[in-house]
Design brief:
This protein is an alpha/beta fold. Helices cover 31% and strands 11% of the residues.
Length: 275
């Protein structure tokens, strides 16, 4: 496809293998996005659609923002990339300072990654390294949750609760992962906001600590609001109970907020009681 005609269908769709897509069906009846502005996308058929998923959760400010385009262009012209080993770029430190002013409590150390899957994989490794650095290297077990999505790397798939992913890659997943139940109870179907019932499900973590030894668990990872099998809002008191159990047993609590974080929930889950 030439740079002059971005709305045309490419001569061949065969070489590009798309993720999470029925490739045969897509290439029979392709839908190509040619441009975007604000919350709207335009297809090569000339139709307009709403980008309800914010890209892949990565465009919360919308598409085609002039100030973002200008800032990115200016930075690329000055310095496009510098490898971060034993050297750095001042802008990344400035950004980390700005981010830390919006994170709750003492969550003021920023480690950059390139995507949600890499962020989860890095969090798993940081959890292991943290305990080892504190002289508690025997902690090796991780707790995930049913119906959770934490990316498609090995670690993220292991702690995730997407059944088909776990079945497909079972032979190469991390062996020391246990899953607690999800919180989507039948009586929650038509409730707005946080349900009043279900906080006791967090006690699954306490039971796992009793059965496997809390002293052997490195971290528990959950999405505060699960987003890949429906928008599953946690019951009132559920996340606080997880925090309490983790603190009791010296377990790190990892919140995967790739989908629900950074302004999408207002003040809802960045609550000081969860830190």
């Amino acid at each position: 496809m030439s740079s002059e005609n971005r709305t045309a269908v490419p001569n061949s769709l065969n070489e590009h293998w798309m993720p999470f897509t029925s490739n045969k069906d897509f290439k029979t009846n392709a839908r190509l996005i040619t441009e975007a502005k604000g919350v709207y996308l335009k297809t090569h058929h000339g139709k307009t659609q709403i980008d309800g998923s914010s890209g892949l959760f990565c465009n919360p400010l919308g598409h085609g923002r002039k100030e973002i385009t200008n800032a990115v262009t200016k930075q690329l012209e000055q310095l496009d990339y510098v490898q971060p080993f034993q050297q750095g770029f001042g802008g990344s430190f400035e950004l980390a300072t700005k981010i830390s002013k919006h994170t709750p409590g003492n969550l003021n150390r920023i480690f950059y990654t390139i995507c949600g899957s890499s962020a989860v994989e890095t969090a798993i490794k940081i959890a292991i390294a943290y305990h080892r650095a504190k002289g508690d290297g025997k902690r090796f077990r991780f707790i995930g949750r049913e119906r959770a999505y934490h990316g498609m790397h090995i670690g993220g798939t292991s702690v995730g609760g997407m059944v088909n992913n776990v079945k497909t890659f079972a032979s190469i997943l991390m062996p020391c992962v246990v899953h607690i139940r999800h919180t989507h109870l039948p009586e929650h179907k038509f409730i707005s906001g946080q349900p009043e019932t279900g906080a006791e499900i967090a006690n699954d973590l306490e039971r796992i600590c009793e059965n496997f030894g809390g002293e052997n668990i490195a971290a528990c990872i959950v999405e505060p609001v699960a987003g890949s099998t429906g928008c599953l809002v946690p019951p009132k008191g559920y996340l606080e109970k997880l925090r309490e159990i983790c603190d009791k047993h010296g377990i790190l609590l990892i919140f995967d907020e790739v989908i629900c974080g950074w302004g999408r929930m207002d003040q809802y889950l960045l609550h000081k009681s969860l830190v």
